[in-house]
Write a structure and sequence with these properties.
Layout lengths: L5 E10 L2 E11 L4 E5 L6 H8 L7 E6 L2 E3 L4 H6 L2 E4 L11 H12 L7 H14 L15 H14 L4 E5 L7 H18 L2 E5 L3 H7 L2 E6 L2 E7 L5 H9 L20 E8 L3 E8 L4 E5 L6 H8 L7 E6 L2 E3 L4 H6 L2 E4 L14 H6 L15 H14 L16 H14 L4 E5 L7 H16 L3 E5 L3 H7 L2 E6 L2 E6 L6 H9 L2
Helix pairs in contact: 3-4, 3-5, 4-5
The structure holds adenosine-5'-triphosphate (ATP) and magnesium ion (MG).
């Protein structure tokens, strides 16, 4: 039987100028599913990295399986069966599925030549344990986020995991992929007694999977206990210190003149069939559907990265050709992808630079030199509007917590003030309090005349922010739903219907 017991007591950790953890306690029990919740920047990832030996704690004790560790070296953690799957998975995109799962082991055995047949077999076995079948020789970069996740789990199993820690594993997964992941977690818990520590911002999900709950706020543990002691309201209150009311979006779109965007019969090979819809200035239109429904493909078609084979696109009544990202940008269309942690940020560059990189041309002064005052003004404005939690925008983006990095990507796009903003999973990885703020901001931008197309399968998000929701299945829009005519249960049911 696996032994995953782990006790952390009185953990402190500071980074230059930031106190990330303050007197944190955490107990992990054998074969139990633990959930760690808290707002963006409250210290969850830092705590995980301390357990994994990536960061050295400033104070506190760590006992793993009854043994006290003065320092934890990453190797100690691995030897004790602790495996961490980070927000970015740490896989090698340019290696195949099989290589990612098994290469470590092959190399560890000290062979001079890699036995490729062996690599294949190891990888196949590991995937069989979680009952998934993936093309072993395909490159990991070609895999969906969900599959990357499964590959990371298979890899962890090969390294004799007894405790698997997952930092926001579901943030970029669809409803169905989440179900599949949960079933893998339950299987591993039942059959192999593996314990889990799971970080997520989706409270319904946390309440569903956890047996033990740990709540953090501002670098401290606020409470912990059995799942049965918690509900949504308690979690929100403990995380944020306030209660959050649900509000819907009531805004009259500008119906004078032609619509901002009109899509007429667009088709894309194996992905989109006869898509028709309109979006007016001031409108927030949701697009939802399962993986493969065409929701992301629709965004890519409008952003010029998926070739269209027929149909027309009009902006403000004028037909436009969008065959490349440049065309999209020239027509005032912006796109924030869902896979934001691995796409789009220059991690070693400053927060500020990442925010203004798109608009730097526009801010150039008369001497065609960038006016630092204007640039800094813009940076400060966006850092404060999006409440990016940092002590200094000159610090590199990698010093931000995951949720705050997401905000930098959003800020960059919003700063460029597109006419039509396509947001794919706009609040993925964002905590509940901030989610609410981002929703308010989206409504604010819409009320100032921007059009927003929001791709999401977060049902409360769709209901609270959209004027209309387009439901997609198999590459077609099958229904247009008004939030006031439905509710969470009905929309969830429709979403997973085939
Ligand atoms: N390497 C670093 N250098 C400086 N500050 C850091 C570093 N890593 C984290 N921090 C800071 O420590 C605090 C806690 O960050 P952490 O990443 O642990 O938050 P989190 O709870 O995981 O948030 P999220 O939900 O957004 O991922 C934040 O204020 C963050 O900016
Ligand atoms: Mg984090």
């Amino acid at each position: 039987m696996a032994d995953a017991s782990l006790q952390l007591t009185g953990i402190y950790k500071s980074f230059t100028g930031v106190r990330a953890l303050q007197d944190v306690d955490l107990t992990i029990e054998d074969s139990n599913i633990h959930c760690l919740v808290g707002e963006n920047g409250c210290g969850k990832s830092t705590l995980i990295k301390i357990i994994a030996g990536v960061y050295e704690r400033d104070a506190g004790t760590v006992v793993i399986k009854g043994k006290e560790y003065e320092h934890i070296h990453p190797i100690d953690a691995i030897r004790e069966g602790i495996q961490v799957i980070y927000q970015d998975f740490s896989l090698f995109p340019n290696l195949t599925v099989a290589e990612n799962i098994a290469l470590n082991e092959e190399l560890a055995e000290g062979r001079r030549l890699v036995n490729w047949r062996h690599v294949q077999r190891i990888a196949k076995d590991a995937l069989a344990q979680i009952e998934v079948d993936l093309p072993l020789n395909d490159l990991v970069e070609e895999m969906s986020v969900a599959n990357k996740q499964l590959i990371a789990i298979a890899k962890a199993l090969r390294q004799n995991a007894e405790l698997i820690i997952m930092d926001e594993p579901t943030s970029a997964l669809t409803e169905r992929e989440i179900r599949a992941l949960f079933s893998v977690i339950h299987k591993l818990q039942e059959r192999r007694g593996i314990a889990f520590l799971f970080v997520s911002h989706k409270l319904n999900e946390v309440l569903e999977i956890s047996e033990t709950m740990i709540v953090m706020r501002n670098g401290k543990t606020v409470s912990s206990g059995s799942r049965s002691e918690y509900d949504n309201a308690r979690l929100v209150f403990e995380m944020t210190g306030q209660t959050i009311a649900v509000k819907s979006y009531e805004f009259e779109a500008d119906t004078s003149g032609p619509p901002l965007l009109k899509v007429e019969g667009i088709r894309a090979k194996h992905a989109l069939y006869d898509i028709d819809f309109e979006l007016r200035r001031g409108e927030i239109v949701g697009v939802t559907g399962l993986l493969g429904s065409g929701r992301t493909e629709l965004a890519l078609a409008l952003y010029g990265t998926l070739p269209i084979e027929g149909g027309h696109i009009y902006m403000d009544g004028k037909q436009v050709q969008i065959k490349s990202i440049q065309h999209a940008i020239a027509n005032g269309i912006g796109y924030v992808p869902e896979d934001r942690l691995t796409e789009g940020l220059f991690l070693d560059q400053s927060i500020g630079r990442n925010v203004v990189v798109r608009i730097i041309d526009r801010l150039r002064g008369t001497l065609s030199l960038t006016d630092p005052k204007k640039v800094n003004g813009q940076i400060d404005q966006w850092v404060s509007t999006l409440r990016i939690k940092t002590s200094d925008p000159d610090l590199p983006v990698k010093t931000l917590s995951g949720g705050n990095q997401q905000r930098v990507v959003l800020a960059r796009w919003l700063a460029s003030k597109p006419r039509l903003m396509i947001l794919n999973g706009p609040t993925v990885g964002v905590d509940i309090g901030s989610k609410d703020e981002l929703h308010d901001m989206m409504k604010q931008l819409a009320s100032e005349g921007m059009g927003l197309l929001v791709i999401s399968d977060d049902i409360p998000e769709l209901l609270q922010t959209c004027n209309r929701i387009l439901l997609m299945r198999h590459g077609r829009i099958v229904e247009e739903i008004r939030p006031q005519d439905t509710d969470e249960n009905e929309l969830s049911a429709k979403l997973i219907e085939e």
